[in-house]
Amino acid sequence: MQTTAGKPRIAPLEPPYSAETAEALARWMPPDSAIEPLRLFRTLMVHEQLASRMRPLGAGILGSSATVPPLLREVVIHRTCALTGATYEWGVHVRAFGEPLGLSAEQIRSTVDGAPEDACWDGEQACAMRLADELHTTSTLSDGLWELLASRFSDVQIIELVVTAGWYHVIGFLCNATRVEAEPWAAEPPANGVPASAPAD
Description:
By secondary structure, this protein is mainly alpha-helical. It has helices at residues 19-28, 39-44, 48-62, 70-83, 87-101, 105-113, 123-138, 143-152, 155-178.
């Protein structure tokens, strides 16, 4: 995983916020969050109209109405962030979701410098890793992987997994291009970790 270094290219909004901006930032954060709104969100809110259109999709992927189990979702998110070199978002998701949901240290490291074949993954998790890898490298899914996915997941879940990978490409691009500064509490990726893509069928 490459680390994007350097000064942020777009300064995130800083308090004091207008009442409208404070309300919008609160909607991006978990209810009753005790931490400052994420730098990513404060950067995105520089374009408030776009941010308001993006939030429902992001919330839908992470929310209770999602059909993909949260831990499996995080496998796709962690891997996609690693593949795009989005150290900011990878570190936030490790602390906020991956660790609380039970991803082991071995699994978290594998999302960066491992492979779907690693022993730490079960069958569904390995499929999710492969999905993230193939979409990243080919922008589609091979017939062999599609058959595996179809044997384990519903059509609705497959669509959701694909959209999740796509959404976190968008987030990764935004983090990297604007050089969002890491949150002080976020996890740091393994040194010189480079994800290994799953072999093609």
